[in-house]
Amino acid sequence: MAAGRRPARARRRRRAGRAFVGLLVVVGVLAGAVALVVTALQRLEPDLPVVARCTATLDGTAWTLSADQAQHAALFAAVAQRRGLPARAVTIAIATALQESRLENIDYGDRDSIGLFQQRPSQGWGTVEEIMDPVYSVGKFYDGLVKVDRYEDMDVTDAAQAVQRSAFPKAYAQHEVRARAWASGLTGHSPATIACTLPRSDGGDPDAVLARVERDLGDVPTRRFGGDDEPAGVVVDVSGLGDDAARSGWALAAWAVATAQELGTQRVDVADRTWTRESGEWTTNDRGTREAGSVRLDL
């Protein structure tokens, strides 16, 4: 009997082995089919939209703003440069607006407060229409700041409070480091530290760029290029602003990047560096080195 049972056991083992191999084949086929389906779905799935964001890097830390916040910070720096104010004034302005309005030009606030700095028409800051104009608003803030004796040497929160007369005088301090990082980059003291990651754009309008340059920086030399079937753009010369042409150029380049979402700028060239919308980073300029104070904006 023992001898007769051995062949039966062997046959069962062989059948079990063949069944196991068959199961492995089925599992393998199913796994391959699942992989093919996943790959096909991934190809059909659209790319996730790029969220517009800008950063200022200071001491290895990247401080983020939205593209809208960044363009307002850029205006603060440009107006300060035009008026010959130091980077400290820009730091104070940015920190103040971050606290008052999140650095957004809002048309609401406490009582009749409005705008970037939550200035009140009833307190003599101007009309609603004037305060909602960012250039007017930051100009009024700087008018008040320069009247504060030795504001450059004061803590940011104390200087801001001297202008704003806020019910929360210490609240500005929490924004100081972020504001300082942005002010340093936007005034050219920290070159190539302002960068933006932006969605694709069909390009900008040279007339809009020229109008924005004049609005923010005043009457500086500009030149259009391209048009028709050629790529269009603008060259801006700020070598006459301040006593350091190289730093003025970097300040304008940072301004150009920070306003790129608004103006549709595709590329910014300054000195030996380039920022592009495609990469979102500063890299070596493949067109060579530009003259100090000259910045090229490709649209």
In a nutshell, what does this entry contain?
With 299 residues, this protein is α+β, with helices and mostly antiparallel strands.
Low-confidence stretches: 23-29, 37-42
CATH names the topology of the largest domain as Lysozyme
| Radius of gyration from the alpha-carbon trace, in angstroms | 30 Å
Number of helices: 10
**Architecture per CATH nomenclature, i.e. the level-2 architecture of the largest domain:** Orthogonal Bundle
Would you list the SSEs in sequence order as H and E? HEEHHHHHHEHEEHHEEEE
Question: What is the CATH first-level class name of the largest domain?
Answer: Mainly Alpha
β-strand percent reads: 15-25%
Shape: globular
Short descriptors:
single chain, 299 residues, alpha+beta, Lysozyme, 2 domains, 6-stranded antiparallel beta sheet, 3-stranded antiparallel beta sheet, 10 helices, 9 strands, 47% helix, globular
How would you describe this structure to a colleague?
It is a single chain. 39% of the residues are buried. This protein is of the alpha+beta class and 299 residues long. It is globular. Helices cover 47% and strands 15% of the residues. It has helices at 2-44, 67-83, 87-101, 128-131, 134-145, 156-164, 176-186, 206-217, 245-258, 260-263; strands spanning 53-58, 61-66, 194-197, 222-227, 230-237, 267-270, 273-276, 282-284, 294-298. The chain folds into two domains: 53-190, Lysozyme (Orthogonal Bundle), CATH 1.10.530; 201-298, no CATH class. The strands form two sheets. A six-stranded antiparallel sheet has the order 4-5-9-6-7-8, covered by helices on one side. Strands 2-1-3 form a three-stranded antiparallel sheet. α2 runs antiparallel to α3, α2 (67-83) runs antiparallel to α9 and α3 crosses α7. The protein starts with a helix and ends with a strand.
